[in-house]
Amino acid sequence: MPTIARDGVRLYYEDTGVGSPVLLHTGGGGDGRMWTLAGYTEDLAGYRCVLLDHRGRGRSDQPAGVAAHRIEEYVGDVIAVLDATGIDRAAMIGYSSGARIGFRVAAAHPDRIWALVAIGSVPEPDDDHSADSAAIGARTAEIRAAGMQAAMEAMAARESEPPPPWLMDNLATTNAEMFALSIEAWVGAESSWSLLPRISAPTLLIAGEKEAPEGAADRAARHLGSGRAAVLPGFGHLQTFWHREVTGPIVAAFLAEMSRGAEPAQ
């Protein structure tokens, strides 16, 4: 079972395929299996795919306490997995909060990322993660009390169609405490918007029409050093991920274009 330990936290990952390396990172709920269940790994045949169960999720350890869930720890985990797999430079695909981690990895470690795909996370100029502590406390208390299944069902209710059972089942496996800790720990983190000009890797932003204000994806793309955006008509946050038959080919085409200038396959 492929695992590494970083500062006492065991991280599980799968390393499959041959070709230019791609690391895939999921969001606040779910684990690395989501990418295979959705079919993204089929679209990425011809790449070396590293599927990470990030800390607190899937088969990785579930560290207690807010300090263990600072966003910098998640960034450090990505670099540690790349080091462990002998990958000097990878493309990174992040979904939801995994995209926020991707922005930070690309900004802090430009030599390690040859392309970035951010699905379901569009930074805006007024992003402020220093939210009112009482509001954050109320939200995380509700998550802890109701459980992850209820939290994901509330998210699914905002979509225009029911999510597939495999997605809801995978999201609900996440420990509600881990989800709540990451929300609390990321309060006060530097905004993703402020990071964008420091990202030199070619970056693709993919968002559902219903999950971002009109024009937001294009504004963010222009704020990047080398960015572009794809807005999917009619889709909400979860639909943008699970409708891989729409999102997957966009991702694959972008990586195919960008990999021509990337390092040789590892």
CATH topology, which one? Rossmann fold
Kindly state the mean pLDDT as a whole number? 95
Order of helices and strands: EEEHHEHEHEHHHHHEHEHH
Largest sheet at a glance? 8 strands, mixed
- Ends apart, CA distance between termini: 21 Å
What's the arrangement of strands in the largest beta sheet? Answer: 1-2-4-3-5-6-7-8
Tell the overall outline. globular
Number of helices: 12
Count of domain modules: 1
Instruction: Extract low-pLDDT stretches.
Output: none
User: How would you name the CATH homologous superfamily?
Assistant: Alpha/Beta hydrolase fold, catalytic domain
Provide the gyration radius in Å: 17 Å
Number of strands: 8
CATH architecture identity: 3-Layer(aba) Sandwich
Secondary-structure-based class equals alpha/beta
Q: How much of the polypeptide forms β-strand, as a percent range? A: 15-25%
Q: Helical residue percent?
A: 40-55%
Q: Mind telling me the CATH class?
A: Alpha Beta
Describe this structure as you would to a colleague.
- Helices cover 42% and strands 19% of the residues.
- It is an alpha/beta fold.
- The chain has one domain (3-126, 190-259): 3-Layer(aba) Sandwich (Rossmann fold).
- An eight-stranded mixed sheet has the order 1-2-4-3-5-6-7-8, sandwiched between helices.
- Helix 4 links the parallel strand 5 and strand 6.
- Helix 3 packs across helix 4, helix 5 runs antiparallel to helix 8 (176-185) and helix 6 packs antiparallel against helix 7.
- The longest helix has 16 residues, at 244-259.
- The chain is globular.
- The relative contact order is 0.17.
- The mean pLDDT is 95.
